[in-house]
């Protein structure tokens, strides 16, 4: 599949997909317009997210920063496309934007020796948005051929515990 057609099979939404990379950081409007699902190499990709603010014992709950686990997964537990990577993460509350400077990425399989089906992205030290607040999580996916695109999950409520 060529660079230009890698992300051509869009299932839902309207977003930016590119084979040459973004010229600059996407705007909040562009991030909100990201796809909720895309098909890449026969696998339908989507996100699942869990965000929380967890107070440490003895500290006030309003001091705990936001943390998140965002999972890039395939519909039906199909194999992830080879060379896929999550390059950036954004969390949006209204017009407020949090872009963690770094994240931890873990690739998971449904069973030992099986091809990977999930990439878990872990971020922390976020803003102190209130539990119950609904946010949009967006990731930039990159492929080994330098193509990239945005994928989102919306309406995710921040919880008060992990």
Name some characteristics of this structure.
single chain, 162 residues, mainly beta, eleven-stranded mixed β-sheet, 1 helix, 11 strands, 3% helix
Summarize the structure.
By secondary structure, the chain is mainly beta. It is 3% helix and 47% strand.
Topology:
Layout (H helix, E strand, L loop, with lengths): L9 E3 L4 E2 L9 H5 L4 E4 L2 E11 L12 E9 L10 E9 L2 E3 L5 E6 L6 E8 L10 E9 L5 E12 L3
Parallel strand pairs: 4-11
Antiparallel strand pairs: 1-3, 2-11, 3-4, 4-5, 5-9, 6-7, 6-10, 8-9, 10-11
What does this structure look like?
With 162 residues, this protein is mainly beta. The chain has one domain. Helix content is 3%, strand content 47%. It is built from one helix and eleven strands, in the order ββαβββββββββ. Strands 1, 2, 3, 4, 5, 6, 7, 8, 9, 10 and 11 form an eleven-stranded mixed beta sheet that branches.
Radius of gyration: 16 Å
Give a quick account of the main beta sheet: strands, pairing sense, barrel closure: 11 strands, mixed
Low-confidence stretches: 1-21
Order of helices and strands: EEHEEEEEEEEE
Helix-residue proportion? under 10%
Give the number of DSSP strands. Answer: 11
Structural class comes to mainly beta
Strand content: over 45%
């Amino acid at each position: 599949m060529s660079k230009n057609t890698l992300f051509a099979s869009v299932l839902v939404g309207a977003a930016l997909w590119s084979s040459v990379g973004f010229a600059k950081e996407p705007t909040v409007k562009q991030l909100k317009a990201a796809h909720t699902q895309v098909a890449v190499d026969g696998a339908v990709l989507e996100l699942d997210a869990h965000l929380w603010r967890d107070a440490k014992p003895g500290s006030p709950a309003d001091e705990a920063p936001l943390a998140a686990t965002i999972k890039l997964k395939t519909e039906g537990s199909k194999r992830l496309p080879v060379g896929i990577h999550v390059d950036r993460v954004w969390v949006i509350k209204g017009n407020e934007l949090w872009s963690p400077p770094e994240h931890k990425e873990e690739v998971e399989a449904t069973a030992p020796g099986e091809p990977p089906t999930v990439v878990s992205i872990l971020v922390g030290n976020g803003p102190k948005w209130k539990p119950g607040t609904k946010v949009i999580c967006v990731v930039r996916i990159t492929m080994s051929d330098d193509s990239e695109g945005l994928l989102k999950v919306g309406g995710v409520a921040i919880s008060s515990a992990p």
